[in-house]
Structures are given as structure tokens and as C-alpha cells.
């Protein structure tokens, strides 16, 4: 991609959003960090400009960030997902893609981070699909990439990102953005309903991380080489 | 391990069981192939002796196979899991470990193989733990290793096996057997309840396999090197 579009990150001041912003800014992509507070968003943007000299980054209210480009990333904790989706109803327009990264960890209701909550629609991503305005499509991705690893500029990434969605063309567009980050490969995991399983990779990795005192990632073996998204 | 113990495989004439038997026999481990039919078990043993000259393999009724060693593998389809566990009640004795490999695919009730069934106890492995005699412990493993890959002697394996169980010592004993097979690394995925997630890796891989026309496996990145089970 010669000129990557702006990447809006709703909840961009959280750990996952900030880690993604760091990686994308480092890769030269323009970023719109969204937050409930324009002031906090601008502070995060300022920090990112200090860490990554020349970073093209602005800090905005979530709703304003979501208007910056067709593909919008939602990186809020599950506890805040519905509230954020409600707030985005006026901001999102038909044709946009919302990339939901939400993991329904039981930690959202003071349970364990190795356990998850049942979501009535099947997954957080399917809940998002129900809540976005008509004509907006949801793609689910980036659940299994650890925020601490993303946020550590010295950490080398070497893992796959499982992407779920009902249209391959949408997933391919999201995959291009994910693969701007060196060390991440986007893998087509199937329809949006597969987010039921993909979202569960996070508590599984947390369980493994506890035992191995590490930040593990997922990789698939046996996939053909080359560009999977052509 | 100088002298690996016999490895009983209940349901050893099925695709997963036969694939495991092939790999373990090739590695020099003695195998007890179990089946509901002693005749079918002996036929499978005979085929294995032809494929792997010098293989130490016997074909037995499931119940007799289960008495051959402390660690018993259960590799039947979900549809037959409860029936098999009922049949094993008299055969299994306290101190034994049952390694449950069952995946509750919706295919068991003529649904899709990319979907799974909800199991009341949380997972097939937890259902097994409820059904085995007192004093028998269940470890869950080997869900994500594809039977076609295992069963093809020319296919090189290169993947991780996520092992769930409530006692590390039990998991370590199972891990030693899994790691007799070249190309498989056993990873401690946490308590038995984590089988809720690990069993879901199979429908996820099936979804990926459909898209990539391959037999994908799972690997974790970021784990420390060396023997994880000491």
C-alpha cells in the first residue's frame, strides 16, 4: 500500500489501542486516537509523537475519530463495548467497516481473566454487528495480540491474527492494515460467527502466560506461503 | 524415556486413534489398540504391523486395552463419548489417567464441523471427568492435531498440543507420551476447565482448513525454550 489511509482507533488510549497506535505510527500510517475525552486523546497523541518522531497522529473524541476513515478499530474493554457502540451510532455510516477487538473476559465482572462470559449473540463481535448502524459491517480481529508486547517498541512480533467476517473482501482490507505491522500475519478464520472461538484465544493465552511467565502468541502451521489475501 | 509403557488407545480404529497409533508405533512405543470389536482391533493392529515393521501392537476390546497401562487415551467421536465412558467404568481403576481427546463438533448431530455443541459440564473433558470412576483423573489433549496429518507417514508434524488438567504432574506424564511423536510439543494450557476453549480449536482449524485447503496446526510463539515439564 503506497499511502495507507488514516487508522481511527476508538478507545485508543487503552492498552491495546495504544499498542496498535505505536506500531502503526512506527510503520508510517496516520492514526486518529479516539477517547471519551478529547483531552486524554490529545495527550496520548502527544506521547506517541514523542516516542515516534514524525508520527502522523491526532487525538480526538471517539465519534470524531470514527469519521476519519472507512475502517475503524474498536479496542475498548468488553465492559465498555455496548456503551461505545451506542455512542458511535451517529458517527458510523453505511459502507464503513468496524473492526471489533473485544474479548468478553470474565474480568469485566470481576471474574478471572482465564474465563469468559457468554454473550447472548454468540460473541462480542456478533453483538457489535447487531448494534452498528445498517450498512456497517463488522470484522473481528486482533484479540490474541498481547497489549504489553504491542506496547513495547523493543519486542519483536511473530504471530498470526485470526480475522473473522462474513465477506472476504472486507477481511482483506482489514488484513492489509494489520500486515502493515511487521511480524503480524492476518489469517482468514472464517465467518463472523467464528469470533465465538477466536475471542476465546485470549483467556487461553492468559492461562498459558501465567504458567510460562511470558506473553505468548498464536501461529498456524501448514498454511500455504505467499499472500493469502489476493 | 528409555522404555515407554504401553499406550492404550480406546477407539484406536478411528481416524485420530489410528493416526496416533501409527506415530507412536513408529517411535517404538508399544500400543494397545482398543475397539468395540476385538476382531476390528486385531485387523487394525495387523495393518499397523505391516506399515511399521517390528511394531509392538496388540488389538483388543476397549475395556481390555484400558487395563494395559496407567495412562489411557480416549479418541472416539463426541457422539460415542458417553457410551464409551460408561463401558469403561469397570475397566478403569483409581490412579489411572484418562486422556480425553473428544471434540464436541456439531457434526455429531449432523451440524457443521465448524461449529460446536454446548456441553452441560462446560467441555467434553469435564463431562469425562464426571463420568470416570472416582480416583481416575482426566487430562485433555490432542484436539487440534489433524487425523489426516497424523495418519500420513510422509507428513512432517510441526505443532503444539495444548494439554489441560488440574494437576501438573499428570499433565507432565501425558506430555512425555505426546512428545514421543517427533514434531509435537506439549504445552501446559492450564486447568481442565480450559478444555472449554482448547476443544474449540478444532472447529476453528476446520474453518481455516476449508479456506486454505490445508491441514493447519496450532503453534504458540513466545514460550521459553527447553523442557517445559521438568
How does this model look, in words?
Chain A has about 230 residues and is α/β, with parallel strands linked by helices. In chain A, about 35% of the residues lie in helices and about 20% in strands. The first copy, chain A, contains 9 helices and 9 strands. Chain A has helices spanning about 15-25, 40-50, 60-65, 80-85, 125-130, 145-150, 170-180, 195-200, 200-210; strands spanning about 5-10, 30-35, 55-60, 70-75, 95-100, 135-140, 160-165, 185-190, 215-220. In chain A, the strands form 2 sheets. Chain A has a 6-stranded parallel sheet with strand order 3-2-1-4-5-6, with helices on both faces. In chain A, strands 7-8 form a two-stranded parallel sheet. In chain A, α2 links the parallel β2 (about 30-35) and β3. In chain A, α4 runs parallel beside α5 (about 125-130). The interface between A and B is large, with 39 and 40 residues. β9 of chain A pairs antiparallel with β9 of chain B.
Describe this structure in a few short sentences.
Two copies of one chain form a homodimer. Chain A is 34% helix and 19% strand.
Q: How are the SSEs ordered, and which strands pair?
A:
Two copies of one chain form a homodimer.
Chain A: E1 7-10, H1 15-26, E2 31-35, H2 38-51, E3 57-61, H3 62-66, E4 71-74, H4 81-87, E5 97-100, H5 124-131, E6 137-140, H6 147-151, E7 159-164, H7 168-178, E8 184-190, H8 195-198, H9 201-212, E9 217-221
Parallel strand pairs in A: 1-2, 1-4, 2-3, 4-5, 5-6, 7-8
Amino acid at each position: 500500500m503506497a499511502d495507507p489511509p488514516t487508522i481511527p482507533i476508538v478507545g485508543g488510549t487503552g492498552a491495546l489501542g495504544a499498542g496498535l497506535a505505536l506500531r502503526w505510527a512506527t510503520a508510517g500510517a496516520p492514526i486518529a486516537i479516539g477517547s471519551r475525552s478529547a483531552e486524554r486523546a490529545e495527550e496520548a497523541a502527544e506521547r506517541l509523537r514523542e516516542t515516534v518522531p514524525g508520527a502522523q497522529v491526532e487525538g480526538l473524541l471517539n465519534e470524531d475519530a470514527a469519521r476519519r476513515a472507512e475502517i475503524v478499530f474498536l479496542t475498548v474493554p468488553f465492559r465498555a463495548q455496548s456503551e461505545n457502540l451506542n455512542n458511535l451510532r451517529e458517527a458510523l455510516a453505511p459502507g464503513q467497516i468496524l473492526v471489533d477487538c473485544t474479548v468478553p473476559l470474565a474480568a469485566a465482572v470481576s471474574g478471572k481473566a482465564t474465563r469468559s462470559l457468554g454473550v447472548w449473540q454468540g460473541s462480542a463481535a456478533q453483538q457489535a454487528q447487531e448494534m452498528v448502524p445498517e450498512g456497517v459491517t463488522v470484522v473481528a480481529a486482533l484479540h490474541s495480540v498481547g497489549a504489553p508486547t504491542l506496547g513495547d517498541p523493543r519486542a519483536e512480533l511473530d504471530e498470526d491474527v485470526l480475522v473473522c467476517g462474513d465477506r472476504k473482501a472486507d477481511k482483506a482490507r482489514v488484513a492489509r492494515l494489520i500486515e502493515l505491522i511487521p511480524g503480524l500475519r492476518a489469517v482468514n478464520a472464517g465467518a463472523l460467527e467464528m469470533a465465538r472461538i477466536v475471542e476465546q484465544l485470549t483467556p487461553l493465552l492468559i492461562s498459558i502466560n501465567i504458567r510460562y511467565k511470558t506473553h505468548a502468541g498464536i501461529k498456524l502451521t501448514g498454511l500455504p506461503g505467499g499472500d493469502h489475501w489476493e
